[in-house]
Amino acid sequence: MNIILLGAPGSGKGTVAEALKKSFELTHISTGDIFRANIANETELGRKAKSYIDRGDLVPDDITVDMVKERLSHQDCSSGFMLDGFPRTITQADALESILCSRGQSVDAVINLQVSDAVIIRRISARRVCKSCGATYSQTFNPPQQDGKCDVCGGEIVQRADDMPETVLSRLETYAQKTQPLVDYYAARAILINVDNESGLDLAMRQIQDQFAQRGLISSQ
Ligand code: AP5
Ligand code: MG
């Protein structure tokens, strides 16, 4: 099964991807995580991406598409993947379609996570991440067991550089302008699944399972 996780910044794409991994063997590809790893490792790609990310803008399509195309060619994607944060523009969506088409593949479902801007702003200001492995926490929703220390690898817990209030507003604006049109794009292809992630993760996961079952992507229990 090949899935796209669509949704505004802080709508829970990474959190839902982690939850889905418990039920499905799907490779999780977060373009944001790949960019952040490249920035931390001071690569050429990281250098190019940093200024866009720091101001809450999108990294140019050609850079992002090449990066995803390369990642999708890895063996671990052949039995299914979850794209988190890609595509974010119509250009990227068209490019993805042609990459997959050339390999005889397609997208089975696009999970559109719906959360109001007010809740997003609250959640992002409470979000903390591990500096070493990128694991995500929330000061209110799922804090690490030991203050300031990652449960997974023991790394230092920090606030993401682009989670400062001014950058969050700019990311929300970028989403509304450039990414929101993908909702109609995928609705027209009848693969869009709208999921309410405002009321709690368990409820969101139940909606996803129900929709997968209704669409014959998993057997209904
Ligand atoms: P990226 O890393 O993808 O950031 P984003 O889209 O802004 O999304 P986030 O990672 O901030 O949020 P999320 O939806 O994963 O939510 P999370 O699960 O953490 O991209 C960063 C930047 O890279 C972009 O701004 C852009 O510059 C660049 N970039 C990336 N992809 C690109 C592309 N394709 N093209 C061009 N540029 C690109 O959840 C948020 C918080 O809420 C967490 O603390 C979590 O614990 C909590 N939470 C989640 N669900 C719930 C719940 N149900 N109840 C309570 N709390 C919850
Ligand atoms: Mg994320």
Provide a compact summary of the structure.
By secondary structure, the protein is α/β, with parallel strands linked by helices. It has 9 helices and 8 strands. Helix 2 (31-40) packs across helix 3 (44-54) and helix 6 crosses helix 7.
Question: Architecture of the domain at 2-26 and 80-116 and 172-214, CATH level 2?
Answer: 3-Layer(aba) Sandwich
Provide the β-strand percentage band.
15-25%
Contiguous low-pLDDT stretches (5 residues minimum) are none
Number of strands: 8
Average pLDDT metric: 96
Main sheet characteristics: 5 strands, parallel
Measured on Cα atoms, how large is the radius of gyration? 17 Å
Structural class estimated from helices and strands: alpha/beta
Bound molecules: BIS(adenosine)-5'-pentaphosphate, magnesium ion
- CATH superfamily caption of the domain at 2-26 and 80-116 and 172-214: P-loop containing nucleotide triphosphate hydrolases
Mass-distribution shape: globular
Tally of helical segments: 9
Order of helices and strands: EHEHHHEHEHEEEHHEH
CATH topology group of the domain at 2-26 and 80-116 and 172-214: Rossmann fold
Name of the CATH first level of the domain at 2-26 and 80-116 and 172-214: Alpha Beta
Q: Strand order within the widest sheet?
A: 2-3-1-4-8
End-to-end span in angstroms? Answer: 18 Å
What is the helical fraction, as a range of percent?
Answer: 40-55%
